[in-house]
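Revision sheet: structure tokens.
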Amino acid sequence: INAEYMGQTDSAHMDPHGSPLPFIHTVFRLKRTLRTGWVRSGVARPESVAEHMYRMGVLALLIPADMPLNRDRCVKIALVHDLAEAIVGDIAPSDNVPKEEKHRLELEAMRSITSTLDPAIGTEIFDLWNEYEQGETPEARLLKDFDKFEMICQALEYEQEQPPLQLNDFFESTKDRFVTPLVRGWVAALLQERAQ
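Predicted:
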């Protein structure tokens, strides 16, 4: 958990004129919050949460036009899906934080983060985050697959850049967990590349 920021309430710093600066400064933290799994695996120069979220957004741009879902909504979900980590940090499975507690911490963080914004904008961002968390819409299910795919894609790139680094745990943790045909195809190609 990102102890440096726990206990801070962004709404306490809200600009009375409605400036988005408190929100923008909170988003900055994602550039400095490193992905826990890579840090613990000994990756040199591990990516930040912001870097992960950026590539998730790019993946959403690759959604074929004939897929029956809202591609623009997918891009938006990708851009906010880990926003709570600006406050709580990147809580990994190895942290042994119960799923319910992780959700509670992230829910509180999102309420705090979005409370600094114009209500309409804050509500939209919160709803996009919550849609991803619930994972019930076609867009959210696809983004959940993108999240796992982006992680194993990054794992392969680290293995290629930093031999003899082996990140098998990341591949094992996602095995048989992809639900969308689009991403299953990407995963098959990625695993084939890794096997070469």
